[in-house]
């Protein structure tokens, strides 16, 4: 029997965060803020190459109860979705590049980067209690949910008012810097934008070249469809070098071209062959990596067109093509991800996020949700993989105050 991921309502998770805060620090928080994880529907491994992605914010939230303290330190307590409790105390003046490069860095690094860039007002210590329904290591951006809930909380506590739409780019930057500079994960910015800009009922077409995030209707129910997430429970981490190795090839190639942006390079795959030859790199491998990035952005632009034309058949075909490219050209899938993709029937199915573990999503006929989950579970168990866990994802709102 497929196991379903349990999710609290925004009120319930806010209540739990406030209770954890009171237990840990003995007084009431100033407020509770929440930010969602995200699911990337199509367009993976293109954000750091000025490409296009179509994610949406999940309804699943990370909630942060917070209040300033007079200790010149951040005190943190966190309960993860699996019930694991973690604590940390970080002096305010100890936060900076690669410090602290663990889970607490996502939180305190966001405050550090936001105050450095003056988006978030005065530096001060905070007491922070975190609870989350965004599964960890599942390709659903639990780290962005942590950064972005902290970002809106610290913004409001330090500046005295909630962020407006105009403040969001500064908060996106602070969250990205926390991840890149403090934790040391060289990720690209898709996740933080999704978590801060999410809108109920909408997917986001993000063009990283233009710097635009455009909400578009994503009404699966009207098509009798649902988006099923299968978390393979083969955990991944993006700070372990594999992600950086993929990004490194694209960054290195781009830096050798006269164009400022990967998107401006004409016939990038052919140029990549020439560059790899001159550099003594594996020519076929570099070609496949660059070719994926070019094709995936083109595919995602086509997918945005398919959404606009209400052509979900074309959209589902593009999802399948995307998975095959991430598997064969970018080589970021795992046997567990490929098993779920095959068992779901491929059409309308793909891995989501950074890969090397995590989740497969499938646009399924709403009547076939249970059946499809069962097939994915059966295939995993038959191969000795962990039992996946499941979620039906709907587009929810972005980071905000919960209570
Ligand atoms: C991770 C990163 C993102 C993006 C995706 C792949 O989620 O954090 O920046 O690169 O992988 O699309």
Give the overall form. globular
> Gyration radius, to the nearest Å?
21 Å
What is the total tally of β strands? Answer: 13
Mean pLDDT: 97
Work out the count of structural domains.
Answer: 2
Q: SSE order, as H and E?
A: EHEEEEHEHHHEEEHHHHHEEHEE
Family: Belongs to the GHMP kinase family. GalK subfamily.
Keywords: ATP-binding, Carbohydrate metabolism, Galactose metabolism, Kinase, Nucleotide-binding, Transferase
Pfam family, one: GHMP_kinases_C
Domain GHMP kinase N-terminal: 118-198
Describe the structure.
The chain has about 400 residues and is an alpha+beta fold. It folds into 2 domains: about 220 residues, Ribosomal Protein S5, domain 2, CATH 3.30.230.10; about 170 residues, GHMP kinase, C-terminal domain (Alpha-Beta Plaits, 2-Layer Sandwich). It is about 40% helix and about 25% strand. Helix 3 packs across helix 4. The chain is globular. The model has no long low-confidence stretch (mean pLDDT about 95). Bound molecules: alpha-D-galactopyranose (GLA). Alpha-D-galactopyranose (GLA) binds next to helix 5.
Tags for this entry?
5-stranded mixed sheet, Ribosomal Protein S5, domain 2, single chain, Alpha-Beta Plaits, 403 residues, globular, alpha+beta
